[in-house]
Amino acid sequence: MSLKLTILGFNSAIPKKRSAPTAQLLEIANRHFLIDCGEGTQVQLRKAKAKFSKINHIFISHLHGDHVFGLIGLISTLQLLGKETPLYIFGPKGIQDFILNQLKHTQARCTFDIVFEELENKKTEKIFEDDKVEVHTIPLNHRIYTNGYLFKEKPKKRKLNIDAVKNHPEIQVCDYENLKCGKDFQSENGTTISNAELTLEPEKSFSYAFCSDTRFKPDIVPIIKNVDILYHEATFLSDLQEMADYTGHSTAKEAAMIAKEANAGKLILGHFSNRYKDLNVMLDEAKPIFENTILPTQLGVYEPEIHAIKMDIKT
Amino acid sequence: MSLKLTILGFNSAIPKKRSAPTAQLLEIANRHFLIDCGEGTQVQLRKAKAKFSKINHIFISHLHGDHVFGLIGLISTLQLLGKETPLYIFGPKGIQDFILNQLKHTQARCTFDIVFEELENKKTEKIFEDDKVEVHTIPLNHRIYTNGYLFKEKPKKRKLNIDAVKNHPEIQVCDYENLKCGKDFQSENGTTISNAELTLEPEKSFSYAFCSDTRFKPDIVPIIKNVDILYHEATFLSDLQEMADYTGHSTAKEAAMIAKEANAGKLILGHFSNRYKDLNVMLDEAKPIFENTILPTQLGVYEPEIHAIKMDIKT
Predict the structure, then answer these.
(1) Contact status of A49 with chain B (Cβ, < 8 Å)
(2) What is the active site of this protein (chains A, B) (predicted)?
(3) CA B310 → CA B26, B223, B292, distances in Å?
């Protein structure tokens, strides 16, 4: 599977003994993206047996402590580990000063470059792209400037139908790349063999959307339409709707409504208020609206449903 | 016992799964003093079942991350818990900007005053005093400006010898306070009863010295002379003396030499380099010099030896 999400922590506000604040490690197309970095994230990464050296991109949703207080510690540890490649940090305007001021006071010896990509756009934008992956912001509505992030694999190349290809000895190995890219085969004698005859559908490209913290914001639906996994905060139940609106959070019902409208493959709830001891109440509220809703577990690993099953669910 | 030390963490540099960075909770004469605050300290405090509301004074030795990165998270949690009384933070010059800049960017809502007491004196000084306790700095020698701290109870009042007092009906309850303060009793008819006849020795006043991080610095001995418990960093063994000097740390042997010269009651080592898997090698090096040396345990609680035993050790 080319997408694997590890929930390092999903607690809101105050770190507890057995539940770390928000942080996630997303492995997508062999990239290792860290999403949010509450206090203690580096220890959670160790528990998850993550490879620190592979983390070169960090995406911070907003500058509330439970999403960012672990960042300076992680940076310091990467320095002590001798990291040399640049570290790219995406986050709200201000994050550069927030980190650099701490590095200045602690007289940290930087062994690598930190490249800050400060965000202040209130509309969605593509902030990262390489040959396999794109990352887009999901503008959210919280008490301070906040973005969710949509991570999606680019369309993959078609797969060679080797048996079909072998029926045409005039097709050489150096032609394969054109076929994978969808081109028909043109022989030297002028005949054409259609690509559909020579190749199979590419493997599915997966996507993941992280939405925390935010009030109910249905205008994000077009951005995350058909996402394979949606993580959406659900700090409260609906009986505390006013509290949710006031504090800039969502209810489990609202998270489920977003997942349903977006036709998501799977919904993971998170960022629960500490008042809820039995989190099954969250499922009780969300599942009638969006059945494929799950609760996260600390250090839990999540992958998209396999394609066939997912297609069944969606039809 | 009027002095109780809880080691919240004693790891050096990089936080690990099972060993938190430096932080200690000292309960002395019913005060709750937090000493250093590495990342994750607030979770360690929870594990130690500490009462957050009683922490009004925090002493930071120096601004290296493994001693201070947990401070902003703890402050934020105190705010969320609705703390109202002032929080006094003692630490190197710069700590105020270090914290206030983080509070600014995270738009924290302060429910209480933070009073920063920034230190830059290179000589020992008394930085805190109330009716029962004094705190003095212990200037250390590290890569950046660093202080250890000496916490000591003031001399306690003498105890009434009730049987002796009752033999003198002319002594009234309102005279007791003068007796506890060491005064002789003067009766109205002019006779004097000596204080020694009416009172017993006061309970012992205890003291604790925290010394981390530092190179071997024997000129601190007069400051910590006869301290009941000494915590002294021992990052390395003597075979890495050059490394210790270069990085501004001590060896187990040097820590023991300080304890011996200071006539300490007990020595707790800490801040070990992660290269040492079996920490008993630290004891092997220190104990021949200072027998009453111990290794800390995570969340371990330490009290001074009871008086009689300690006196035996010292004679």
Answers:
(1) no
(2) 66 (proton acceptor)
(3) 20, 20, 10
